[in-house]
Write a structure and sequence with these properties.
Elements: E1 12-17, H1 21-31, E2 36-43, H2 48-51, H3 59-76, E3 88-94, E4 114-117, H4 125-133, E5 137-140, E6 147-149, H5 152-158, E7 167-171, E8 181-187, H6 193-213, E9 232-234, H7 241-249, E10 268-270
Parallel strand pairs: 1-2, 1-4, 2-3, 4-5, 6-9, 8-10
Antiparallel strand pairs: 5-7, 7-8
């Protein structure tokens, strides 16, 4: 894990996230440089966030998910949150139950300087209203406005747009992945498509850590998304056996298209 050195640790953060290796990695990373980290952590199956379904039994999808899991372990380790740092408090909730809780029930987790969402279920109702008012930041794995919806980086590769594999750090909004953009997080780690995709997650983590560290995250002027640039709004049912099988048959060149920074907003690149 890259060391983050902070002179000023006077920061209280609330994170809404899930319980897989990468989510636990983010918890550990954020805990390094804040006085208090409050985590609302949803428990769900290992791959539900990739497919939003637990009913995939096809061989191609199983292969894809296994390879993605291997890439996650390689980049983030087989990380569990066992011995919590003293500055971390976690509320465990079942996946899908988050919006059932009242603001009063969550009140101890809603008194922070900064709110971050990564990998939680879709937040709506009064909680969404509160977080939007607090200018909460969402980490969307996909480069908006070009790719929104489910498994966006899979679709960018499938569409042979490797230069549009990355993350969008944006303000939370009621619409899915369409809040005003702060910046994009990308990666130059292109050993294979799975590590490339997962490395953009790490890019999102370290970029937001650095920007919290120097407090520039509070100074970035959000830019409204241009919806006319949308290439694909992907849905759950589109990630199916036929599509994934054809994906494996493709010879995707990760360097076929160079990064075009005119397509991106204040891009941050992970290089190692």
């Amino acid at each position: 894990m890259i060391a983050i050195n902070l002179v000023d640790k006077n920061m209280k953060i609330t994170l809404f996230t899930s319980n897989q290796n990468r989510h636990n990695y983010l918890i550990n990373l954020l805990s390094q440089f804040c006085d208090e980290l409050l985590v609302v952590q949803e428990s769900k199956s290992a791959f539900k966030d990739l497919t939003h379904s637990e009913n995939h039994s096809s061989s191609s999808i199983k292969k894809y998910l296994k390879m993605m899991s291997n890439a996650q372990i390689k980049l983030f380790g087989d990380l569990k949150i066992n011995n919590l740092p003293k500055n971390v408090k976690i509320l465990h909730v079942l996946s899908g139950d988050l919006n059932k809780y009242s603001l009063s029930f969550l009140s101890d987790f809603l008194k922070s300087d900064l709110y971050i969402i990564f990998g939680s279920s879709y937040i709506k109702s009064e909680l969404a209203n509160f977080l939007i008012e607090q200018k909460a930041i969402n980490i969307h794995m996909g480069v908006s406005p070009y790719y929104r919806g489910m498994a966006c980086n899979f679709w960018a590769l499938n569409d042979e747009n490797p230069h549009l594999v990355g993350a969008t750090i944006h303000r939370l909004s009621k619409g899915l992945d369409n809040g005003p953009i702060l910046y994009h997080a990308m990666s130059n780690i292109k050993l294979d498509s799975f590590e490339y995709t997962m490395s953009t997650v790490k890019s999102a983590f370290y970029s937001i850590a650095e920007k919290i560290k120097d407090k520039s995250i509070f100074e970035i002027k959000p830019i409204t998304q241009n919806k006319s640039k949308e290439i694909r709004y992907s849905k759950e049912f589109e990630f199916n056996e036929e599509v994934v099988k054809k994906y494996f048959e493709k010879n995707i060149d990760l360097n076929s298209k160079k990064f075009d920074e005119t397509l991106l907003i204040k891009p941050y690149f992970l290089n190692n």
